[in-house]
Fold Chlorophyll synthase.
Amino acid sequence: MKMKTLLLAPILAASTVAFSPAPRSFVGLSSLQQQSSSLRMLPVNDNKIDEDSLSFCPFPRTETSLYATPPESNQEVSDGSSDLRQLLGVKGASGTTDIWKIRLQLTKPVTWIPLVWGVMCGAAASGNYHWIWNPFDPNDRNVLLGLEDTLKGFVAMILAGPFLTGYTQTINDWYDREIDAINEPYRPIPSGAISEGQVIFQIWFLLLGGLAIAYGLDVWTGHDFPVVLALSIFGSFISYIYSAPPLKLKQNGWAGNYALGCSYISLPWWCGQAVFGQLDRPVYFILPILYSIAGLGIAIVNDFKSVEGDRQLGLNSLPVAFGIDGAKWICAGSVTLTQLGVAAYLQSIGESTYAAILLGLLLPQVYFQATLLLPDPVANDVKYQAQSQPFFVFGILATALCLGHHDFSA
């Protein structure tokens, strides 16, 4: 494989991406961001930190005690889904004292899905993923090879989802713990449902475990250069500076939103493709990066409802910088123009069917932009995403399948 010479391409191109940095939430005023510089690692028990034994941690503790009794019910939904919401890590969750449920909640499993999808797209783009028994291709019915590829894909999804996305979600909550104590005191860390030492242990466990899995995938696939490990290290670093001061990319509208958009598409795509094939053509980098521009637009939708708070806290989100009217057009334009560009490229290489499929999937997105996003992005943000994004992600998969199908040597 040509991994060694090509590794710099995704790294340079994705200078602001990560394996899923967490969605931007309120961050504290400068006074709230002042933290202790002491280094800590693990608690002796759930409620007390042994100052002498905890010595290796780049995630500074706060001097404020966050060990309050966790609330049994705080803003719980009443539709019977509060327990499920707690496990998925979304608002309206029920209170719990089960430490394993709390640990899972911190990783926000609902956010794993785009990363898992990205790995699937990379595997499809490789053109080298084998089914266990392909009903459409008699030459693709090697059961043992199909089982091995299925297992490789599953491990890559575990890497991208529970481990590296879980790491970035946990570290994001860690660095937002003080402002969350004001805005969302029922969250696991500010409520005291989990101790600070336990959170730090979880961060290290997920990070180091993810890097170990990445290296294992490189060994399994026979890479001369550990490209999956390198991408994972790079993405994890960007995830750190996305959440942590002083850079804290999430405070900047362009950098933060592009980091979100690119992390949900480019890095998991490259990971999946590296596991099953080669990153040996510029198009394998260019198309995921183009889709990440559309991802930037989608990420803006999450900022509309918090525009007033962002303005008061001095956060330069795109709705603050350009106003809601300006930001909604940036959102719609980036999503639409990116997919038009990809469709034009597919047409240019003779893949008319796939180009038509992509345009067909774009039409409902434009309709939902016209009927939901542009009229009132604040009121319709959730509804717009729920109705529009399925067409967007299936368009990404269609593009990946096209790349895997196309004969570039012809």
In short: The chain has two domains: 15-277, 281-410.
